[in-house]
Amino acid sequence: MDDLITRLQEIPPAAYRFTFFAALAFALFMAVIPGSADPTGFVNDKFKHAVTFLVLFILFDLAYPTADMPWWKPVGLLAFGVFI
């Protein structure tokens, strides 16, 4: 597992920033489409939320690496969740 984390941290943060904002846009798109158009409608809603925000948080943390956990990372994702 440590090898995987080390390899992920070798990728430049700019690549993760692009991926993070693309995933954020995709999450926003999936949140605003009608329920009848949702191709993942058969998946439990709570599971989708958990996986979505887990992936967004991991990408956010890799896109803006810091030595500790600043308050603005979880608050930023919480604000996005409240926004949608």
Q: Mean pLDDT, as a whole number? A: 87
Largest sheet: none
Q: Give the radius of gyration.
A: 14 Å
How many domain modules? 1
Distance between the termini: 34 Å
Tell the overall outline.
globular
Plain-language structure description:
- This protein has helices at residues 2-10, 13-32, 45-63, 72-83.
- It is an all-alpha fold.
- Helix 2 (13-32) packs antiparallel against helix 3 (45-63).
- It is globular.
In short:
The protein is mostly helical and 84 residues long. It has 4 helices and no strands.
Index terms:
84 residues; mainly alpha; 71% helix; globular
Please give the structural blueprint.
Elements: H1 2-10, H2 13-32, H3 45-63, H4 72-83
Helix pairs in contact: 2-3
